[in-house]
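Hi team,

As requested, here is the filled-out complex form for the 4'-deoxy-4'-aminopyridoxal-5'-phosphate run. I kept the field names the same as last time so the parser does not choke. Let me know if anything looks off before we queue the next batch.

— J.
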Amino acid sequence: KSKEILKMQEEMETSALNYPKYFEIAIKEAKGSTIIDVDDNVYIDWFAGVAVVNLGHRNPEIVKALKDQIEKYWHFVEVPSEVRVNFLKALRETLNFDSKILFTTTGADAVEAAIKIARWNTGKRLILAFDNAYHGITAGTLGFTTYPPAKKFQPYYDNNVITIPYPYEYRCPFKDCLNEILSLVEHEVRTHDVAGILVEPVQGEGGYIVPPKGFLKGLREIADKYGSLLIVDEIQSGVGRTGKMWAYEWEGIVPDLVTIAKGIGEGIPLSLVAYKRDLDKLPQAFHLGTYRGNPLGLAVGKATIEYIKSHGILERVVSLGDYAKKKFNEIMEDNYKGSFDVRGLGFMIGVEFSDAKKNPASDFVKGMIKGLLRNGVIMYKAGLYNNVLRFMAPLTIPKELLYRGLEVFEEVLKRSVF
Ligand code: PMP
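And here is what came back:
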């Protein structure tokens, strides 16, 4: 049945789709951390809709929030409402600065709005971004994103960007990775007209790359010294995924702007920019969008924040994340012959596969994704070279499904030909 549905979809929808090329299944139902396809195969979900369904599919508390709101209304645009102010209050309490919020619709939309706010407030134009970054691939965000398929669409609409290497220690081009990169950043900030430094605290699509300690702190100092704003993109790393509500908290910094999407709406499109109150002198209606602050998303967003707080989710992500990282390392050491790197924070774990000379083992990873799927685990890739498997399970995954998934990972790895 899956094959039939896939064929019909392929017939009608664009051939430029991505995920069905990896997951040749049609979904019937999803619950918690499992997915059931139309042929009744059951899969362990380590994908969570690209790190979106953080609290598990159809989490009962999220379902309740949705149902309650759906009985009231689900669209209006900006007009004051309790669901709106209740969400705003809950969200602002999670941030470590006095924030104002601008709602957007997607992750890329939030990044575009953040760039506008930074440029307006500084009167400067350039944005400093990083190699391997992913901030969206709309016309406005393409220039800040390193993503080979999108690179075909040059020249970008927004070319006012300087790109610097990210401290990717496994493949770092520098000896003293962190300090050399920070000094590169400082050089650019000093010599150019930089409105904002746009950074993922842990790179997502780029390969689940965790920078060394001191990176965000260093960027904060440079931004302060030269009058640039620090824009932290928490679209993938936020909402508890790294074991803190916001990944920037691991570095104890205060950002100027934060972009938030994915997990905050659990799949109901909700995104936003949180920015410091003193950046709030903005032109009226400078950023619009019909669906901003959709009430269903707002109801879910508030329930999500409350759930994370009341169910000890952050502590769980830290301890189970540490355990999973250790296990991935052991499994790789015991079973993989090439060079590899296991890295991560919380439930954002990347396993990078290379040959002995560190050439990316992209085909091997493609085979692993298919092998994992065939054996009941949904896991997806990342990285510029498509050679990183990423663990991004729902933060609520039952321990048994984590353990079973790790067993399957080991079995599939053992059987894969390198
Ligand atoms: N920033 C980051 C860090 C992301 O991971 C993504 C999506 N993968 C985006 C921005 C873009 O979000 P969206 O796909 O909702 O436009």
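Two things worth flagging: The mean pLDDT is 96. Residues 313-335 form the longest helix (23 residues).

Thanks,
J.
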